[in-house]
Specification:
Elements: H1 3-14, E1 20-24, E2 40-44, H2 50-58, E3 69-71, H3 82-102, E4 107-110, H4 142-156, E5 167-170
Parallel strand pairs: 1-2, 3-4, 4-5
């Protein structure tokens, strides 16, 4: 769990979550050591490997299910090859969404990025509803394009009419 992930784990527990499952490719940060293991389960794995994602969802145990998945994992920065961004940011998002549905988790909160909306033009004074996801081929870098692809996939799964509803949002 990176900076945002560590804080999210803490906030969820402070606000009454009975258990939080943190999933990351990196080893657990020392800041999480003070949280009791019956409250926080840390699972190491790769978002792009569906078996690892299934293992993370299964960490809730056979008598419980994940109520809400907060998907904040991403490969960021201008340092990597496009195929690696695609693998983590797009395929990772597909895996989280698909496994959530498989496991009976009906809520996904996905961390978006302002870069999915920017095309290099001035956005000063624009409202959020005026900044839609850029169309394919109109991104400034592979990170933004692959984040937008993942976000589009997750948001298309939103279905308020299903029983129970499958709710997705990107923030």
């Amino acid at each position: 769990a990176g900076l945002v992930g560590r804080r999210l784990c803490t906030l969820l527990l402070e606000r009454g979550a009975s258990i939080v499952i943190a999933f990351d490719i990196a080893p657990p940060p020392s800041e999480l050591n003070s949280i009791p293991s019956n409250k926080l389960t840390y699972v190491r794995g790769d978002l792009s490997d569906i078996k690892d994602v299934r293992r993370a969802f299964a960490a809730a145990g056979s008598n419980a299910k994940v109520e809400c998945a907060f998907h904040i994992g991403a490969l960021v920065g201008p340092y990597f090859k496009k195929d690696l961004y695609h693998k983590v940011n797009y395929l990772g998002s597909v895996n989280v969404a698909d496994v959530a549905k498989e496991c009976g988790c009906h809520k996904i909160v996905m961390s978006s990025s302002p870069s999915t909306r920017m095309d290099g033009k001035d956005i000063k004074w624009k409202r959020e509803d005026e900044l839609s996801i850029r169309p394919p081929g109109k991104f400034l870098e592979p990170y933004a394009e692959t984040k937008a692809m993942g976000e589009t996939y997750v948001l298309k799964l939103n279905d308020e009419t299903s029983s129970p509803p499958f709710l997705t949002v990107a923030v």
